Amino acid sequence: MQKEPVLLNLALVHHLVGQGALRQAAAYFSGYKKIFILVDENTEKICLPVFLRYLPEVDVTGYVRIISGESNKNIQTASSIWQQLTLFHAERDSLLVNLGGGVITDIGGFAAATFKRGMNFINVPTTLLGQIDAAIGSKTGVDFNEYKNQIGLFAHPKAVVIDPVFLATLDQKQIRSGYAEMLKYALIMDIPLLKLMGLQHLREINGNIGAMTIKAVSDKISIVEKDMHESGLRKLLNFGHTVGHALETFFLKTEHPVTHGEAIAAGMICATMISAGWPGFECHSPEQIYQTIDRDFTRLKFAGSDIPEIMRLMQQDKKTKENKLHFTLLYKLGEAVPDIIVPEEKVRESLHFYLRNQ
Ligand code: GLY
Predict the structure, then answer these.
(1) 6-169 fold
(2) 3-state secondary structure of 135
(3) What residue owns the CA closest to ligand 1's atom 3?
(4) What distance in angstroms lies between residue 240's CA and the mean position of ligand 1's atoms?
(5) What distance in angstroms lies between residue 230's CA and the mean position of ligand 1's atoms?
(6) Ligand 1 center–CA 89 separation, angstroms
(7) Where do the CATH 3.40.50.1970 domains begin and end in the chain?
(8) Could you confirm whether 139 is annotated as catalytic?
(9) Bridge partners of 96?
(10) Catalytic status, residue 158
(11) Considering the domain 180-356 in this protein, what is its CATH number?
(12) Tens digit of pLDDT for each residue in 50-92?
């Protein structure tokens, strides 16, 4: 049994992960003249009291507030963060603590990294998705027009503190969203994690969550440390994301937006279907993967007539180059291959397959 929390390093940045991480993190927040905490209306109410209870020694100068939600992850919200930091007379040597999910750590990192050419920031992710993905790997940014993460930069936080204590504050929808990314690591590289997840119905957050989070975080770190700027290996993390991002954007414009994880779960079904028919691949039991995903995620509701629009959105994604769709596919369970060019026809077929086989 692993003793928690554990300390993992990525580009010399400490990632303190697991039960008790907050309690042991005080040193990361010392030595700054001014400390600001970035919150949204949810994390201010629910997560901030937890943060302050475990870290009473953090001397907070002020709170920077934004409105929650992916639809607010834009340059206007970044501008409001810069505005609030300016009113607080924040300096380059001040610290911004990003307390929240993926939207907060993405936009907070971006705003901090660009404010006065870069002020310090620490990520304290509070959602499962943020803890195992968004807060790790130094990608920061905002959405632009209808495209996700179109504007941004790589910027290292001073530290990342990942404590499962926050997970108790989440509803099932948010847990499920992170669960999809956890399943992604399991499918592309980590069969022991797949076993730990039990190939079972998603349950209430249980005693295993700390161990599963540590495994997922170290999976992500092990990839990013070899390929920070996503020239090759890091693209493995895009499994399910080529179709998934397009679906997420598509639903964002409807009255029924879906979570990132719900979209990625759908994208993983499409990518698995393509993998199963890919020449030379050994992805022989895709049904097992479909069943695992279907047990926890209801199929997204779109129509065959929506597929041209979904394909159009995919064409605009950063993963599309010279009009060619790039996919990470499963060579077999636990092993994936990045950056495979998949013909559009095959992708369309996978979306029809997704709609048909439910
Ligand atoms: N979320 C994918 C990455 O960090 O590369």
Answers:
(1) Rossmann fold (3.40.50)
(2) coil
(3) 237
(4) 12
(5) 9
(6) 33
(7) 6-169
(8) yes
(9) 36, 121
(10) no
(11) 1.20.1090.10
(12) 999 999 999 999 999 999 998 899 999 999 999 999 999 999 9
